[in-house]
Amino acid sequence: MTTTLGAAADAAEAPALADVRSQLRLVVAGSVDDGKSTLVGRLLYDTKSILADQYEAIEEASRRRGSGDVDLALLTDGLRAEREQGITIDVAYRYFSTSRRSFVLADTPGHTQYTRNTVTGASTAQAAIVLVDARQGVLAQTRRHLAVLALLRVPHVVVAVNKMDLVGWDQGTFDAVAADVAAAAAALGMGDVRSLPVSALTGQNVTPDAVRAGVGDAAGVGDAAGDWYAGPSLLEAVEELDVSHDDADAPFRMPVQLVVRPRTSEHRDYRGLAGRVAAGRLAVGDAITAWPSGLTSQVTGLDTPTGPAATVEAGDAVTVLLADEIDAGRGQLLAAADAPPLVTSRLEGTACWLAERPSAPRQRVLVKAGTATVRGLLDPVAEVWDVDEQRWLPAGSGAALNDIARLSVTLAEPLAVDRYAESRWTGGALVIDPASGATLAALMIDDGAS
Asked: Which pLDDT does position 87 carry in this prediction?
């Protein structure tokens, strides 16, 4: 029989735990050989989130490879190509939980050519862990990962300075890396960025138990990390992050997915606008406006998967019933009547170019924002972000794969959007190749939109 490692939570405590746990979407990034797979495996193992037969399998695999220790990195090598190369090449989502919080962890690749995968993993993340090898310090790829996280406005970043055991837990080494991280983050205008020393291999400072084991070694021969580091473990640091100031307090936004008209004998006159609330709250009686049409009505009912509701908020799926049959359907954005979005025929912002083929002036594209898709023409790329120099430089022939660039698109029709600084969910857009359907760029809209 398959069982989980460690003691299962008492059944009587389960409802209480479910009430107090909050979910955190977390992305983990790091350069190749920084120990990212080992760290993710360590988090899964130490939180007792793997099955007994999984552990036995990697124990056997480690033994076959001649290793005296269990290689926890094998837990995260999901694809055959990854196992053969010892690297992560795709975004893999892992799930684990503690008594305080549940986590959805996006494990992203470290190679430069997979930056687009990092963009995918970070696009919905509330926090990020960035690994730095203590022996190597801040590398160009570290700066690239920080730039992507800054671009996508991931609100919290914890930099795990890994492999501290290989530098004898030297405080000077850690302080130098932390200072470089702080300087890079400041240049990017990042807010909540902190560094802490860890060893994913030994587990020191990754979980609270490992911290206590090091500090409390009665023989005085334990890991020396506890001698000078008194901060939280990595797991405690992400458990304590406050993400309560979320989208529920923002102005109401909901892209319309479809118009629901069942036309049955029971619902002969039923007409509702269905979708998922992207931001804010909505209540029966509220005035809302559909954009870009600008038609306004009043909410008369809110149907949810569990029945009628008086209010809904960000993240809820709902069908909105209105007092008037206004001309609103898929592609329109429902917004609070007193907080309109930006309605524009030209989008400008910062983008990560995701296509193998470089951008071209006057290139025909499709732009998808929410549930709306319109045609457009790509303007010449003006600037590209230099990862090493950490400043904007004039673009040469355009944006190339993995470039972070200033991009603008002239649209054939107006779109209703927000600035990315105001909303991560309605302030972004995808630039798409109309011929192949491939995504060319992820665009974060800024004040240049007009």
From this structure: 52
| Residue 10, pLDDT score | 40
The contacts of residue 336 (CB under 8 Å, 6+ apart) are 251, 252, 253, 280, 282, 286, 287, 288, 289
pLDDT recorded at residue 421 = 84
Closest C-alpha among 187, 305, 314, 188 to residue 248? 314
Spatial contact of 178 and 228, defined as CB atoms under 8 Å apart: no
Measured distance CA(263)–CA(261) in Å, rounded? 6
Question: Which ranges of the chain have pLDDT less than 50?
Answer: 1-20, 80, 211-222
Written as six digits, the tokens of 315 are: 């993240």
| Nearest residue to 123 via CA among 144, 145, 102, 148 | 148
Residue 347 contacts residue 428 (beta carbons within 8 Å): no
pLDDT tens column, 137-184 = 998 889 888 988 988 888 899 999 999 999 999 999 999 999 999 999
* Residues contacting 47, CB < 8 A, separation 6+: 96, 97, 98, 207, 235
How far apart CA 203 and CA 77 sit, in angstroms, is 19
**165 contacts 412 by C-beta, under 8 angstroms:** no
Q: What is the pLDDT of residue 31?
A: 81
pLDDT recorded at residue 127:
93
Task: Please give the Cα distance from 56 to 214 (Å, whole number).
Answer: 27
Q: Which of 191, 297, 248 is nearest to 425 (CA)?
A: 248
What's the predicted TM-score (pTM) here? 0.73
Q: What is the pLDDT of residue 110?
A: 63
CB 378 within 8 A of CB 407: yes
- Identify the CA nearest to 148 among candidates 128, 178, 166: 128
Strand residue runs (E) in 34-125: 92-97, 101-107
What residue has token string 């309560």?
A: 244
Q: How far apart are CA 29 and CA 195, in angstroms?
A: 14
What does 164-195 look like in DSSP terms, one character per residue?
Answer: GGGGTT-HHHHHHHHHHHHHHHHHTT--EEEE
DSSP state of 72: G
Quote the CA–CA distance of 104 and 107 in Å, as a whole number: 10
How far apart are alpha carbons 53 and 34 in whole angstroms?
Answer: 27
Centre a 10 Å sphere on the Cβ of residue 275 and count the other Cβ atoms it contains: 23
3-class DSSP state of 250:
coil
Upper half-sphere CA count for residue 419 (Cβ side, 13 Å): 7
Strand partners, 352: 404, 442
3-state SS, 373-401, equals EEEEEECCCCEEEECCCCEEEECCCCCCC
